[in-house]
From TrEMBL:
The lineage of its organism: Eukaryota, Viridiplantae, Streptophyta, Embryophyta, Tracheophyta. Coiled coil: none annotated. InterPro entries: AminoTfrase-like_pln_mobile, MAIN-like. One of its GO terms (biological process) is meristem maintenance. Residues 1-152 form the Aminotransferase-like plant mobile domain. It comes from Davidia involucrata (Dove tree). This is Aminotransferase-like plant mobile domain-containing protein.
Amino acid sequence: ECTITLQDVIVLLGLTIDGEPVCGRDKHRTAIEWQALCLELLGFTPPVTALHGGRLNITTLTDHLAAPMLNDADIATVQCYARCYIMLMIGGSLFPDKSQNLVKLLFLTHLTNLEAAERLSLGSAALATLYLEMCRATNPTRTDIGGPLILL
């Protein structure tokens, strides 16, 4: 028998398993509302074509980060860049969806206060997501899987 445990998450990903839960529901925001949130927390407004419901195209983040941050950037700009990198890690490794190219903007709402985000139990959320995706993958009509497959 083999199973993936919280200890595996700590060892393999270095994520915390204690702390505040990562939960919530996608709010039914309009594209304009998501754009405003991205401007506030990421420092740029993604085009409407990069938004897919409550998800953002990951290449939009990488395109934004291609422009180097100025050496004399203020703290707000540094925090926006940090959120962009965190969203890339979330969408690329920790919580990738089946498309492998979109990240849920719900996670961005947890990054409003970066000091509070440090206390999130991302490890527990990653493991729960993996088990949910493995359960969904047992559906015979399903041809794909999401989640932190690196744990497998």
